[in-house]
Amino acid sequence: MPLIIEEPQITESAQGPRVTPAAGRTAPTPRPVPGPRSAATPRPGNPGRGPARPAPPAPRPHTTPSTPAAPAPAVRKVPEQGSTAQFQLIPSSADGAVDAAEETVDLLLDSGRAPGDILVLTTGEQHPWAAHELSFGEATYWAQHDAGDDVFFARTADAGRCASRSVIVVAVNSDLDDAAARALTGLRERVGALLIVCGDPQKINSALGAGV
To answer: Who has greater pLDDT, 80 or 89?
Structure first.
């Protein structure tokens, strides 16, 4: 019968002595056992709070740019007669006078004017904002005027009730009758720094007696 040779069993003692690393060779450093993480050491996959984010930049205030802002198109300056305030005409039709006034207000705000410095008047129908606010009652409407912290819209017929502001923008959105002409003349005398009138230059100059 063939002989079956059993493989010798190697015992642990037969594996030989443990080898000490030779001189000059560094034994591998054992890995530390993970412990509790401090708040300064966030766990992987969770960046934690980390350093505080810088505050978002503050909204750019309406400041005068380093280069002068381009004036509104087709603005004509009328020489002043005994007044230190500036007077400007922006040619427009009666139908486009309100839009021209709104664009003028945007340019004024972009150039650094405060909203509370601006009063917008119409010779004809109320500005849509004024009409909307008046639907809640005159008390609420005029309370916003008295607050003086935002652009205010009214009619030239109510100009006497409005406090004088440094900038007045007038939209001639109707025929320039005698009452409107007298209102423009009065505004020119009481405006603080700048009076801008949007409308037909010929009619406005004739009403104000300032030929160009």
So the answer is: 89
